[in-house]
Amino acid sequence: MRNLAGVLPDVEIAAIAPVIAEIEALKKERRAVVLAHNYMTPDIYHSVADLRGDSLALARMAAETDAEVIVMAGVHFMAETAKILSPARTVLIPDLRAGCSLAESITGADVRLLRQRYPGVPVVTYVNTSAEVKAESDICCTSGNAVAVVESLGSERVIFLPDQYLGRWVASQTGVEVILWNGSCIVHERFTAEQLRSYRRDHPGIRVIAHPECPPDVLAEADFVGSTAGMISWVDRNRPPRVVMITECSMSDNVAAEFRDVEFVRPCNLCPHMKRITLAGIADSLRHLRYEVTVPPAVAERARRAVTRMLEVKP
Ligand code: 13P
Ligand code: SF4
Questions:
Q1: What is the pLDDT of residues 199-213, one digit of tens each?
Q2: What is the dihedral of CA 214, 63, 73, 107, to 10 degrees?
Q3: Ligand 1: distance of its center to the CA of 92 in Å?
Q4: Are residues 174 and 204 in the same domain?
């Protein structure tokens, strides 16, 4: 059992040992790799995940892997991005219902209408979107590189889609005028500034770090704002005695296991989409090579331009 000791109770580890062993055997047989987002539950994150990270890291890993099969332990847009970047590989997602409220908020037709309304204004699209939306965009970004991507365009004005809060945060960091869409994340929009103030009242000295998908008044209360990987690096660099991560709840469980000297106060806002991915689902996915994620080649080619252009931006 790779890294589960001390992460889960021994009895739970014993119970999941057979499915983990089966996944490991299937990975060898299929020449497969499991890419896991930081929001996976600890049983996945600390065991069968070959590579772990935020959306940006997962995209880079998908582009670079020489595995024949990529199992995306994350949500559908992450699997689509992997397929766009690695068209020759078989990309699987263990549960097709693993969507994203941001990706569902906008269509390719919406982007075409925005372009008509704001001719010549570059379109920056968060990777939390469908391949069809990426295909209509000039460049993609993730929460880890959104500021650098917008700055790389050298434009006074951009259309930023679809997360209104990430868009506002980018505007505040760059001074670029940002035309927004009204998408939001069902997990991060629920945090309130008062909640953050109450963490500070109840836990004196606590450091508060937040994901940029949170509303602006929440971000204004935070000591640091960054992507999921950015938050992990911040904890690693700063080693605060106490911290609260204002993001999906599995993050704290995963990271707490790696930084035993840091006390994690754990908010619990679950992403129902991420939680569709389970060890049993990953085993089934590898056993039956399901559910394969495909992108029509013409759409993939246009989306690849926007994603590759993002990967070329230096952080
Ligand atoms: P990151 O790219 O920061 O991991 O965020 C992905 C996501 O879905 C956040 O809700
Ligand atoms: Fe989408 Fe929010 Fe879930 Fe991330 S946490 S996958 S942005 S719904």
A1: 999 999 999 999 999
A2: 50
A3: 19
A4: no
